[in-house]
Amino acid sequence: MKTTSPLSLILAVGLGASLAACSGSRDDLSPLGAAEGEIRATNTGSYNLHLEETLRFNPVQPGADPARGRALFGLAADSDTEDKSQALFEGPSVAFGGTVVSNQRTCFTCHRGLVVELGLPAAPLSASIDAGDALFTGIQADAQGDPDALGNLDELALIKYRPNRFNPQRGEDDPFRRVFFWRKSTRLINVAFGIGFLNDARGRTMFETDRGAVFSHTQSSDRRFDDLFSVQDGNDLEAFQFSQLSDPRLAALRDPSDPMFRVLARDPFYTVPVATRAQERGKRVFEKYCMTCHNVPNVFSNLSNIEPLGNGETDVQNPVFGPSVGRTFNVGVSERNRHGLRFTHHAGGGRFEPIVLPLVDEDGAVVPFEVTMDVGLAATTGRLQDVGRFKVPQLRRLARNAPYFHDNSAMTIEEVVDHFNSDFYNRSRDGRRFPIRLDHRQRADLIEFLRIL
Ligand code: HEC
Ligand code: HEC
After folding, report:
1. What residue owns the CA closest to ligand 1's atom 37?
2. I need a labelling partner for 228 at 20 to 30 A (CA). Which of 114, 334, 340, 435 fits?
3. For ligand 2, atom 42, which residue shows the shortest CA distance?
4. pLDDT tens across 39-65, in order?
5. What is the pLDDT of residues 325-354, one digit of tens each?
6. What is d(CA 406, CA 192) in angstroms, rounded to the nearest whole number?
7. Which domains does the chain have, with CATH numbers?
8. Is residue 125 within 8 Å of 135, Cβ to Cβ?
């Protein structure tokens, strides 16, 4: 395993940042290295992350069946209505210590078909979803008596999450067991190009993410039932989700042997229908300021990765060892907490207690951190540097994907651009490294471009 001192990596990051910020030339800013015949990421590493050399994504497992995965997901063959018949994950379980009785929620409950890109419709949810739907009747699975949960669900389409709920190493009173988020249900379109899953990329593999979804949304206890979720179930669900692309041409990006792979990898905008001069100018603004992070060609998520053992070597005995695999950034959305969400522990009887996480700084010092916002990746890694870090979402069909950010805090594309153009972003941990200042014209052009993604 290669070790590099944190200091030299920090210096490398600083250098990469200043190059990206000062240069207007396409080559420096393209996610693809210039060398002939070679496809590389120019994105610079974070303090502890090993960089991925090539464009590659988690493959679907041999023998995986996407049609069965769709049925396990609770989606009917029409891709827009629910079919629960194979999707409830209930029955006798040795791991659970009894019989799991489903609350009737399926994956479809919160990822409601292709019409909403496998996410939730616009809030208020009660305007389009029946009060008797398991989304509402099963709410205690996630809410567990939290008095804010119903309002946050209906009015903001946010769901309560306790990321360490199923970690048997964390006792009931452990602040890491108590810490929680209010999160939007991520749209699963193009999830095939994600490296790290969930809004903060804490899900290292799709299998682990899907199994956690089954445990958490089916029932309200913190008990696991691993024996009701087989490897084949996970592989089939993954194959179904990885097949949900915004454009069938993107499939080539997952297969370096496809003749179109190189075309899509080399022209980041190959599938983007740029037609007007304003869109063309907006594309250049995007290249200059946004592709520092949104750098997967034609998809615009982030392609940097961590391989725990370096250089694409994965320990077969322990494929998911390592803190997290996705590259995450703090862009100031959590700190802004635009909806004024509450992050104290509901102790019952209308009492609320602060949650104080012992987070570890880079020098090893333990810092008590009182939670007043969504702490992002830090809730899982326990590291101070990971506070407020989130993964870089894909941007295709953006106009259909509102509202935006992990807490649904931007209602429109304009609000997203204004966030990145504001002090909320520019004073954030990563905004300071990659500043964005757009004038009136650049802002307007960028918005024109984002609309056609
Ligand atoms: C009660 C609502 C709800 C249900 C039911 C639900 N999800 Fe989700 N899903 C969410 C939320 C909320 C997030 C984001 C969570 C976070 O960031 O912590 C999410 C995120 C995900 C992600 C991460 C996507 C990405 O872009 O990284 C995957 C994969 C996923 N869900 C799969 C599933 C599967 C499979 C099921 C069924 C077993 C399921 N979900 C059931 C609400 C739900
Ligand atoms: C420093 C890295 C970084 C830069 C630079 C950056 N982004 Fe992002 N972007 C992110 C992260 C991280 C998120 C997720 C934030 C969250 O949900 O809290 C995000 C979220 C978004 C979203 C929300 C997508 C959704 O579905 O919710 C949009 C849209 C977006 N960015 C567009 C842009 C544009 C346009 C620019 C350039 C003006 C830009 N980004 C620059 C990292 C970056």
Report:
1. 107
2. 114
3. 392
4. 433 333 333 333 334 577 888 999 999
5. 568 899 999 999 999 999 999 998 889 999
6. 19
7. 66-242 (no CATH), 256-451 (1.10.760.10)
8. yes
